[in-house]
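DATA SHEET
Item: assembly model
Revision: 1
Owner: S.N.
Input lines:
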Amino acid sequence: MRLALILIGGILFGAGLAISGMTDPTKVIGFLDFLGAWDPALAFVMGGALATFGLGLFILKKTGLRIAHTDLPDTSSEPISKRMLIGSAIFGIGWGLGGFCPGPALANVTTLHPAVMIFLPIMMLGMWAATKKSTP
Amino acid sequence: MIEPLIGGCLIGLGSLIAMAASGKIPGISGVIAKVITPVAKTDVLWRIVFLAGLVAGAFLVFQISPATQRFTIPGGRVLITVGIAAFLVGYGARVGGGCTSGHGVCGIGAGAKDAICYTCVFMATGALTVFLWNLFTKTGGLAG
């Protein structure tokens, strides 16, 4: 039950990425190109996602409804850390350089496009390097 | 702009269901990273199931509507650029504690101030990178 719901969640997420057009890195770069030929599509994606997620979370919290006796994770804000600010800045540079963030890159894996096949393993290497560094 | 809005709603709903069922924040970079370097043996299977669903969901849409398979490398980028970008994305997302989905959708959607802050930072450095790239490679505007 729990895993089936998680699978459905993943399917909806992946379908959403493909329908929204965000699996095309040029669309992502078009959004980040505020001073050029700006493409607002990603703002609509974020808007739709935030509205749905935010409203759903609000309802879950209000009604106390729980799935498979699972408690909701702690989503409260933590103090801003300098390390995480730097990490986010680095992430943004990579995002602007390639036009990929992790979700759309993975969603493209079945297309076997060379850029995706290069991106995914190197991204994982970067994740591994970051984890290595933080756990001496 | 109706497809981006519908797609966004599905992303939000998928994240919500995965969060409620797993009890974890299902940001894609965190989900992938903790498959590579697990924190606990019991914490891996749901992540693989979620990622498999993501791949399957996109594949399904690609098959039903081939136009959604549109994939163009942004102006002036070569495969080496993509490789460098990939390392920065993976490394930065882990050090930064999340990516577009973890901070951008789940964090902001939950009203977390830290997530809003980190999202603003990566949007800003992303936009600045695109600006500088276009400036120095002259591939801006409608190229690509």
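QC remark: Chain A is about 70% helix and 0% strand.
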